[in-house]
């Protein structure tokens, strides 16, 4: 199997972050810059889709080594991503969430979560996260489920016993984003597979073989071939993102920070001076606010109403969040260079979010979400660089 070697993208990412921190880009360039930075920082996102939870569980376990839940406990949606220690966040049917350290436990699974987000220290997950979505028996639920999955993935694996007319109808109606790079995995390939419309074809097909006995692992040859193909595709996508970044940086020319100078986490224009101890108090609550707003928006979009305008909901949520951050930053001290630079970044991203809301559409929504992710990173970096408050005399000494 191809080694999980990570390409060093720290230089280009630092240059993109340096550009955003300078707050001198046009709104269109700032949006493009944020999108490129997010694409480089984030692992590739793989989605397993299909009507058979047992097959999805079998492939998930084969790809990452061990599934975080038993085969009979698969929720409608399960996402596994990299983390330094196991952690689980469960979304329940009423929209509430439970977060706990460790893998999913029986008491959490007994509450019938509709979505489990699990972090695990698995090496392959540094390269890709894996989302498994089991399609409901009710065809009316297919469209919103596929639309939701499309927003959380770049590579799709359609998993089925045999790709027949029913599969073809569901797949043909899937969003174009899922069709962009899709692989078919079936237990027994159909002798004459149904014809798919142009643009919905699979880039590769794999035969998984007959259903295994209970507890049997996926064949090593299948797992190795799938991993080889997926990692090769991810390498190509990463190379394309790097090429796009280099072209973008080349177009901006002298405005781009030098690589050596850009390696620092954030080189804001007025932040050459170290943040004051007071920055910790200024930034903590806005960071909590932004984190809560992002969580609330994710919950609202977890299972959207059929026919609902998810892009408009994202754009509205991002603009409301930007206004909330502006209100919080309005009273920050004018004589603190780091606070001034961060407030300027909030203002620029808020303006860009408003322009994206006017533009509308799926691409604008994705860019707005990426800008909010960039703003969260800015606040986290400001908090991390702020000196801890001095201990009172006699405390901890």
Automatic annotation (TrEMBL):
The name this protein goes by in its record: Uncharacterized protein
Organism: Roseicyclus persicicus
């Amino acid at each position: 199997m191809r080694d999980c070697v990570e390409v060093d993208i720290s230089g280009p990412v630092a240059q993109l972050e340096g550009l955003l921190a300078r707050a001198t880009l046009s709104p269109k360039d700032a949006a493009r810059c944020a999108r490129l930075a997010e694409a480089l920082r984030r692992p590739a996102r793989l989605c397993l889709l299909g009507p058979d939870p047992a097959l999805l569980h079998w492939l998930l376990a084969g790809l990452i080594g061990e599934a975080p839940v038993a085969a009979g406990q698969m929720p409608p949606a399960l996402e596994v991503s990299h983390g330094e220690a196991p952690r689980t966040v469960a979304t329940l049917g009423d929209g509430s969430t439970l977060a706990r350290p460790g893998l999913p436990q029986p008491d959490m699974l007994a509450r019938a979560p509709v979505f489990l987000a699990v972090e695990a220290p698995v090496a392959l997950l540094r390269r890709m996260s894996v989302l498994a979505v089991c399609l409901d028996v009710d065809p009316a639920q297919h469209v919103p489920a596929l639309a939701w999955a499309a927003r959380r993935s770049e590579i799709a694996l359609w998993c089925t016993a045999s790709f027949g007319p029913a599969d073809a109808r569901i797949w043909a109606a899937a969003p174009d984003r899922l069709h962009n790079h899709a692989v078919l995995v079936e237990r027994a390939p159909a002798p004459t597979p149904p014809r798919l419309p142009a643009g919905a074809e699979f880039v590769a097909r794999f035969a998984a073989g007959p259903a295994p006995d209970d507890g049997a692992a996926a064949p090593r040859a299948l797992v190795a071939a799938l991993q080889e193909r997926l990692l090769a595709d991810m390498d190509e996508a990463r190379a394309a993102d790097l090429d796009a970044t280099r072209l973008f940086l080349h177009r901006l020319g002298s405005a781009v920070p030098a690589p050596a100078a850009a390696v620092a986490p954030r080189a804001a224009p007025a932040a050459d001076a170290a943040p004051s101890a007071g920055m910790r108090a200024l930034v903590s609550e806005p960071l909590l606010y932004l984190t809560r707003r992002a969580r609330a928006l994710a919950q609202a979009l977890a299972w959207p109403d059929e026919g609902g305008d998810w892009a408009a909901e994202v754009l509205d949520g991002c603009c409301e969040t930007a206004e909330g951050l502006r209100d919080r930053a309005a009273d920050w001290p004018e004589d603190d260079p780091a606070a001034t630079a961060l407030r300027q970044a909030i203002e620029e991203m808020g303006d860009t979010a408003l322009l994206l809301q006017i533009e509308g559409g799926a691409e604008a929504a994705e860019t707005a979400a990426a800008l909010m992710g960039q703003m969260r990173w800015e606040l986290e970096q400001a908090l991390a660089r702020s000196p801890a408050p001095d201990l009172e005399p006699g405390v901890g000494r």
